[in-house]
Amino acid sequence: MSSKNNDSMDGGRGRPLYDINGLGGDLGTNDDNINNDVSEIGRLEELKQQEADLARQLAAIRMEKLSALRSKPLTIGVIGFGRFGQFIAKTLGRHGKIVVTSRSDYTEIANGMGAEYVPLSEPETFLDKNLDVIILATSIVSFESTVKSLTPHLREHVAKRSKGPLLVDVLSVKEHARDILLNYLPEECDILCTHPMFGPDSGKNGWKNLNFVFEKTRVDKVVFDPNSCVDFERSNDRAFNEAYSYTESMDRIERFLSIWEEEGCRMVPLSCKSHDEYAANSQFITHLMGRILGAQGLQKTPIDTKGFESVLKLIDSTTADSFDLFYGLYKFNKKNSLSIIHQLQDAMDDVVDNLKILEKKDLEQQKVHVNVESDEKQRGARID
Question: Do 91 and 207 contact (CB within 8 A), yes or no?
Fold first, then answer.
């Protein structure tokens, strides 16, 4: 075979160095890959453009929403101007007029944050402030008595105006609050059950990304039933949706919720029943462990680990709240709370039992070891 032919072969082994058909096939595949790559690059650029367009639309919608919110600011009443009442009133005051009432005279503190104080002994004066919303920021244990004493004055107020204010609770237990509000309040008053999952300590640097749980309990005399398929926003009843009174009620609720949303809260729509089930597994057990550890009198030491520092922080954060709050979490969510207590007791027993089992095994192994050594010594003595 000539050298020329050999040059065209792979090392003389009879396989062509250049396969025109194969090369053509490879080129075709490469062209497809290149086209796909170009297509994907183009698609990515298209998606980024769509993302930018959506961001601009969202920004425009947000500005329009803010404009709508500010065009008709709410007048918000706060009943209970203690630590938590002051905490929320200070921030809510950036979005509307605040009128507060409480047993103690908080005139100076209210004036300092641009709010108006009305003595609790003057409920008619308080209600005559043309309140759109009333927040019940009382303790759990005094909640029912507060609502009960307010109700007759609300009925008189509604009789004169035909439409009542939106009543909002901020308790840490929700079914208890829901039942009381539905039981006592006149049906002309809309009800919004809420739980800001933060307080003066955890929210001292702002409310961004903090959970705000809410249930639209009653809107325009219609009560939300968590066991039914009724959805206030998606109802097919046109008469219901298009009624002016419904629109007015929902607008007021949305304006109030928008304040928390604008402050950065993570909005969590949730039924009161589901809230209490979840809360027992998170909030109550947190307070329970904090109280148990706090009762042991734990204190800082010169050699604290990061884990122990976290324990001390838990004690500080839970014991900073009143024992009434802790008792309320237990009493008014008793079924779920007792379940958590029993589970914790069982878990404690299991951990202690496991320690005792390991200790028993360790003692048995030591006993076997001692017996082996004793036998070896005896055998050694007999040999000697």
Answer: yes
pLDDT in tens, 366-378: 888 877 777 777 7
Position 34 scores a pLDDT of 56
Task: Please report, in angstroms and rounded to a whole number, the separation of the first and last CA atoms in the chain.
Answer: 94
Please give the average per-residue pLDDT across 188-206, as a whole number: 95
pLDDT of 349 strictly over 90:
yes
Whole-number pLDDT of residue 297: 92
Distance CA 381, CA 379 (A): 5
**Inter-helix orientation angle 272-279/334-383, to 10°:** 20
CA distance 100 to 110: 7
Asked if residue 189 lies in contact with residue 349, where contact means CB atoms within 8 angstroms, the answer is no
What's the CATH fold of domain 72-270? Rossmann fold (3.40.50)
Q: For position 374, what pLDDT does the model report?
A: 74
State the chain's maximal CA–CA distance in angstroms: 119
* SS3 state of residue 234: coil
pTM for the full predicted model? 0.71
Q: Interior CA angle at 372 toward 367 and 375, to 5°?
A: 125
* C-beta pairs of 112-120 under 8 Å, 24+ apart in sequence: 113/86, 113/89, 115/78, 115/89, 117/81, 120/79
Any idea where the domains of the chain sit in the sequence? 1-51, 72-270, 278-360
168 burial via Cβ count (<10 Å: 0-12, 13-18, 19+): buried
